[in-house]
What does this fold into?
Amino acid sequence: MDHAQGPVKGKNMNQLNVIEKGALGIHEGKIAYIGTEEEALQLEQEGKLLISERLDCQNKLVTPGLVDPHTHLVFGGSREHEMALKQQGVPYLEILARGGGIHSTVNMTREASTEELMTKALFHLDRMLSYGSTTIEAKSGYGLDRETERKQLHVLQQVQAKHSVDIVSTFLGAHAIPPAYKENPDAFLDEMMDLLKEVKEQNLATFVDIFCEEGVFSVEQSRNYLLQAKEMGFQLKIHADEIHSLGGAELAAEIGCISADHLVGASDQGIEDLAKQGVIAVLLPGTSFYLSKGVHARAQLMLEKGVAIALSTDFNPGSSPTENLQFIMNLAALNLKLSPEAIWNAVTINAAHAIGKGEEAGQLKVGRGADIVIWDAPNYHYIPYHYGVNHVHTVIKAGKIAYTGRNGYVS
Ligand code: NIG
Ligand code: FE
It folds into this structure.
């Protein structure tokens, strides 16, 4: 397949470009050569290729750096105290309605200093990198007030300045209704919209997102809010049909979101609309796994209808506390029944397109930044199959070794 243009859609996701016994050259941080080893050695002999340093990748898989297109990287504290409630079967939205869930993380995030949030975000980002992610999207949304939403976005900016992983920022001020606005959620949305002007002026986010869900924001509120954001020049994302089938997918298509995320309850019509409008479906099987509801996004139907699927961790302290995109690949195989080829397309090229990075990340191409993962795996089928461990041998970000899986061994 030539994946030159745009995301890979529908059944085309079941095809992958693979080079057996390949060779890849890096020069000044960029990919300078891709081909077979035989050809590379031939060119070297002819003096047409100068190789100064070699990394032996025999019996290893080499892929683009993974792209994680939906994370809630910056937050205070953690929510392990909710495990007992989960075990008792208290539903996610019920925990939220009782003032726990997102609200509990909001309290901890408000209390945390910028420094604390930064140290913690860097820790989680390091771990994402160690599992192979070299580009991610990250959202605000645990402030629900001006000061803390601002603080989260500033933390993202500062984290980016310190870390090699590329971060695309999303404003998710509309993540829950703070208790003080329970009777008047529209006033809260107005306040977040007002803050958005400042976010735009200071260039603190590329995307605007909203949690469209029963008991949170309705389809109508989401439409109104996102259309205002669009007018201000933001690109749109939406937490859509995660738990209830509200018509979030239809809305995403109607207003031109770059991606619709979750989609476990997306309707037939919604799926058709996504395909028609070219909205990328960002599926989060780790969240379905962790919410333990036994229902999954209808990935096969999406492929049949021609939707481009991306996969993500949804890393967050409540519904998906994991930085490990490899585990999400396992879940996508088991629960979404995606083929290994579709899974790789979903965590590379399509994930990059889902965050507007399609021209920079997600593919190994001459001239692009050398974001590469070398895996302790004999082939690409192996990663979605052998679960629960980290298969990374080496992560290269912009041509530099950023992580090696061997660091911790004493001998
Ligand atoms: O994508 N569903 C809304 N937001 C997050 C969860 C946030 C949380 O529980 O802290 C999600 O699943
Ligand atoms: Fe999310």
In short: The first helix runs from residue 37 to 45.
